[in-house]
Design goal:
- The protein is an alpha/beta fold and about 270 residues long.
- It is globular, with a radius of gyration of 18 Å.
- The strands form 3 sheets. It has a 6-stranded mixed sheet with strand order 1-2-4-6-8-11, sandwiched between helices.
- It has one domain: 2-enoyl-CoA Hydratase, Chain A, domain 1.
- β1 and β2 form a beta hairpin.
- The longest helix is centred in the middle third of the chain and has 20 residues, at about 85-105.
- It is built from 11 helices and 11 strands.
């Protein structure tokens, strides 16, 4: 049973949360798998975001253990699902949207500390954070179209907000990798720092923001999010689950996922 109080951080299976005064941390803790976003992590991130609202944190740093930020949607679950039911696959597909909305609604300002691979759903997780600092070894990619599945979880409108429609089309449709410098040039990340300096740079930024009045930080986050919703609404993101759920039942898409996983293990 998890204790949801300020004095005892909840214990999760796939991530760790902590708060020190006004600074919180959410760390994905499956480094051997490059911090994938499967059913359990997605639920736990949403729960963690709600927990931070019960704490003193006005800033939350989001990162992953090991060499990766996140390898994204857990293809092991997808590729290993031989005959998912319509209801279960849709519910599973909708977890990403619920995670993204929970992170956006979190009162605290979130800072993504990105390094190494940041893939697919990992890009969505980084994108729902308010600020993004990337190590110079970060490689972003959005391989969903090559796998025969749509970029879901509200990823398309969120990318349009950050980098515009033209580059959203290019990166989602070509599935080509892009580095930290290109991500900064596109406006997706705020800063690029040497890998060895990522932690200290993010800690310094978090401390700077934590010294500001929490009420003003929260109000600014809310105002920016309201303006973004006017630019590219997320209101239709719930229907992403129907598209992704259908793809998860497609034998060809599941085989593409198996082939992709095999290619990464060579």
């Amino acid at each position: 049973m998890r204790l949801m109080t300020e004095h005892a951080a909840p214990t999760f299976a796939t991530l760790r949360v902590e708060v020190d005064d006004r600074i919180g941390r959410l760390t994905l803790t499956q480094p051997d798998k490059l911090n994938p976003l499967g059913t359990v992590p997605l639920r736990e991130i949403a729960e963690a975001a709600r927990w931070f609202d019960t704490t003193s944190a006005s800033v939350v740093v989001v990162t992953g253990e090991g060499r990766a930020f996140s390898s994204g949607f857990d293809l092991r679950e997808f590729a290993g699902t031989d005959s998912p039911t319509s209801a279960s696959s849709r519910d599973q597909a909708d977890l990403g949207r619920l995670m993204a909305e929970a992170m956006e609604r979190m009162s605290a300002l979130s800072i993504a500390a990105i390094k190494g691979p940041c893939v697919g759903g990992g890009v969505v997780l980084a994108g729902v954070c308010d600020l993004r600092v990337a190590a110079d070894d970060t490689v972003f990619s959005i391989p969903e179209v090559d796998l025969g599945i749509p970029l879901a979880w509200g990823g398309i409108p969120r990318l349009v907000r950050e980098i515009g429609p033209a580059f959203t089309r290019e990166l989602v449709l070509t599935c080509r990798p892009f580095g930290a410098d290109e991500a900064k040039a596109l406006g997706f990340v705020n800063r690029v720092v040497p890998r060895a300096e990522l932690e200290s740079a993010v800690d310094e930024l978090a401390a700077q923001l934590a010294r500001k009045a929490p009420s003003v930080v929260r109000a600014t986050k809310r105002q920016v999010n309201e303006a973004l919703e006017d630019m590219a609404p997320i209101v239709g993101a719930w229907s992403d689950a129907d598209l992704l759920g259908a793809a998860m039942r497609d034998p060809e898409a599941r085989q593409a996922a198996r082939d992709y996983l095999a290619s990464r293990q060579r």
